[in-house]
Amino acid sequence: MFQLTDWLETLERDQAFLWPNFIEPMYVDSLREEVYALRDAAQLAQARIGRAGERHRDRATRGDWIHWLDGASPAQQAFMARLDEIRLQASRALIPGLFETESHFALYPPGTHYARHVDAFQAGNCRRLSLVFYLNRHWRERDGGQLAIYDSEGREIRRIQPRAGTLVMFLSQTVPHAVLPTRRWRASIASWMRIRDLSGPLASLDRF
What is the CA radius of gyration of the chain? Predict the structure, then answer.
């Protein structure tokens, strides 16, 4: 288990941090079973891109199907509790004002990807810390679906395998990233920690 100073110092220095074995394997297995049960029950929605009223579906840019977490299962509750520990620590030491976390399952069918993007624009978006938690057992490099991280010039600087139990966190406003084309079903949970939007009381309800 990482100590508080380990991940906070690395996140501040590198703008990203990789955390293996973030929660107990039994919760990882339960969360994976949940997302595939949602798929089989046709309870996933095709993800959209864009902002507010301009949101639309574009499979050429983003191919995942999603379902927002609501704490309905013990595994979700355990995962969300761990994220809340992260939020409180980050808010005290690095990103003041983080007040909520939103999370959804993301399931990529074979052949899909998510093109390079940044999770939050400099203005008009309250996301400050992005987190991706992977649910895929026995993932091999040839399966594709890696998380690619880029520098400000668009050069790839890191490639992360989406292996079960691994959490990746990075700064939402400054870290371009992409999901490379996957050759098998790829399951994860995407989360964002937000500051409060004082410009409009309903702005925090907007979800991508």
Answer: 16
pLDDT digits (tens, 9 = 90+) for 111-123: 999 999 999 865 6
Exposed / middle / buried, residue 10 (Cβ in 10 Å: 0-12, 13-18, 19+): middle
pTM of the predicted model over 0.70: yes
**Separation of alpha carbons 149 and 138, rounded Å:** 22
Q: For strand 65-68 and strand 45-46, is the pairing parallel, antiparallel, or unpaired?
A: antiparallel
Mapping DSSP onto H, E and C, the string for the chain reads CCCHHHHHHHHHHHCEEEECCCCCHHHHHHHHHHHHHHHHCCCCEECCECCHHHCECCCCCECCEEEECCCCCHHHHHHHHHHHHHHHHHHHHCCCCEEEEEEEEEEECCCCCEEEECCCCCCCCCEEEEEEEECECCCCHHHECCEEEECCCCCEEEEECCECCCEEEEECCCCCEEECCECCCEEEEEEEEEECCCCCCCHHHCCC
Q: Retrieve residue 174's tokens.
A: 């400054």
Report how far residue 101's alpha carbon sits from residue 193's, in angstroms, rounded to the nearest whole number.
4
> How confident is the model at residue 3, as a pLDDT?
55
Would you say 61 and 114 are in contact if contact means Cβ atoms under 8 Å apart?
yes
